[in-house]
């Protein structure tokens, strides 16, 4: 499914000239690598589940490092004994940028409650429009700020005792007119608003963000970005793996004539893959079996973007896939999409839509197209919700570069204390 495939902004290509020989070697070598070099060397979900802030996260990472080569096996045993679902066999909370909400869900001076990486948070937008994400528990006496607070200017006031906190988390006023206690500090999360979504940064070791998600260009006429939330029992790494799982495109989504448009490109936290295929259903009954070209970019394990172009029909779409670990057992999957016309497209449908007034254009292109996109995502949900993380997998030629993807994904687990093999792919 194009929809559930992560990544694909139209910013500058970070490795556009990668040698085709490297790409050809990827798939041929996948089956040979399935003897244990692909995954995380076992399972285990301990080490990243602590919820006590940066110091506690760092302590967990140090403990993980001390477990040695067989640490994941021991952690999996401990997790199983603790009743944690063993089917994921991965630490539940990798580092990265994760979706908090769509930007239009967070109204000016509004407050919402969320659970991200096992921690309850409150997200709010100040009077000037700035998004903030903070730990939900008020540092005074623990009221949940996602449910019992209000925005006042650039500050957040707890409704329990009237304590007020500024953007740095410092208490600037009590509800009694007394001196604010200096140790009463509200912990905040790094926040990034981009492409119509509010993102928050999480790192199991308490490290600050080392990269960010770029803004996508919006040249031309686009529909508004629609989004939908789906909660499912899954792991974020499994969801993002669809970006390189070529084999499932035909069996799950019915795509035909699938071909690679270049070698897999890896540039630090960004992974890029490009494919083409024939779309059996088309859109609105138009363009059946038309060729679709997709450009996928995965930014960490929580944010992906897919650029889809159907030149024969004259449509293009930008799809967003934001997978946020919730409680260690579930993922909050936010999918979004906006649509546009291909510049210079011919045919009756593009010509009519190009002259359609804005609201009707948005309803026709955006509304119907988004429903088709969500249906494509839903085809993956039963599999994601029940599959096990198999490590090592029994890979075969034709699967796609799943082994390279899994090696790339290791960098988001500081508990592994092991360098990623493909941290960067040099351009030719």
Radius of gyration: 23 Å
CATH superfamily of the largest domain: Naphthalene 1,2-dioxygenase Alpha Subunit, Chain A, domain 1
Q: What is the count of helical runs?
A: 9
The number of strands is 18
What's the architecture of the largest domain, going by CATH? Answer: Alpha-Beta Complex
Low-confidence stretches: 1-29, 31-84
Helical amount among residues, as a percent range?
10-25%
Secondary-structure element order, N to C: HHHEEEEEEEEEEEHHEEEEEEEHHHH
On the 0-100 scale, what is the average pLDDT? 80
Gap from first CA to last CA: 30 Å
Shape: globular
Instruction: State the domain count.
Output: 2
- Give the class from helix and strand content and strand pairing: alpha+beta
- Strand % is 25-35%
Look at the structure and give the CATH class of the largest domain.
Answer: Alpha Beta
What is the fold-level CATH name, i.e. the topology of the largest domain?
A: Naphthalene 1,2-dioxygenase Alpha Subunit, Chain A, domain 1
User: In this structure, how is the largest beta sheet organized?
Assistant: 8 strands, antiparallel
């Amino acid at each position: 499914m194009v929809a559930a495939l992560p990544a694909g902004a139209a910013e500058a290509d970070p490795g556009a000239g990668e040698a085709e020989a490297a790409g050809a070697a990827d798939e041929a070598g996948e089956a040979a690598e399935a003897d244990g070099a692909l995954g995380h060397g076992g399972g285990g979900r301990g080490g990243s589940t602590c919820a006590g802030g940066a110091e506690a996260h760092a302590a967990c990472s140090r403990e993980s490092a001390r477990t040695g080569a067989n640490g994941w096996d021991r952690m999996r045993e401990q997790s199983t004994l603790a009743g944690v679902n063993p089917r994921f066999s991965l630490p539940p909370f990798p580092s990265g940028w994760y979706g908090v909400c769509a930007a239009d869900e967070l109204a000016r001076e509004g407050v919402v409650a969320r659970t991200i990486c096992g921690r309850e948070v409150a997200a709010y937008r100040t009077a000037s429009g700035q998004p903030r994400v903070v730990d939900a528990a008020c540092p005074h006496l623990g009221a949940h700020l996602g449910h019992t607070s209000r925005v006042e200017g650039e500050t957040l006031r707890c409704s329990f005792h009237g304590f007020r906190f500024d953007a740095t988390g410092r208490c600037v006023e009590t509800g009694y007119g007394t001196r604010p206690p200096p140790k009463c500090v509200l912990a905040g999360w790094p926040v990034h608003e981009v492409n119509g979504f509010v993102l928050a940064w999480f790192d199991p070791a308490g490290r600050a963000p080392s990269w960010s998600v770029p803004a996508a260009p919006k040249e031309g006429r686009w529909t508004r970005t629609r989004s939908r939330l789906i909660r499912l029992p899954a792991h974020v790494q499994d969801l993002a793996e669809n970006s390189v799982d070529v084999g499932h495109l035909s069996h799950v989504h019915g795509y035909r004539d699938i071909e690679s448009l270049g070698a897999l490109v890896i540039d630090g936290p960004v992974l890029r893959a490009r494919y083409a295929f024939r779309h059996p259903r088309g859109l609105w009954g138009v363009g059946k079996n038309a060729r679709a070209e997709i450009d996928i970019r995965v930014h960490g394990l929580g944010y992906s973007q897919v650029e889809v172009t159907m030149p024969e029909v004259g449509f293009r779409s930008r799809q967003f896939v934001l997978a946020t670990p919730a409680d260690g057992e579930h993922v909050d999957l936010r999918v979004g999409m906006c649509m546009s016309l291909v510049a210079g497209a011919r045919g009756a449908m593009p010509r009519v839509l190009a002259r359609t007034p804005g609201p009707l254009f948005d309803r026709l292109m955006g509304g119907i197209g988004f429903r088709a996109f969500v249906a494509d995502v839903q085809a993956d949900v039963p599999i994601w919700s029940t599959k096990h993380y198999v490590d090592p997998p029994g890979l075969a030629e034709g699967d796609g570069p799943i082994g390279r993807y899994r090696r790339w994904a290791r960098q988001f687990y500081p508990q592994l204390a092991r360098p990623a093999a493909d941290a960067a792919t040099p351009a030719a």
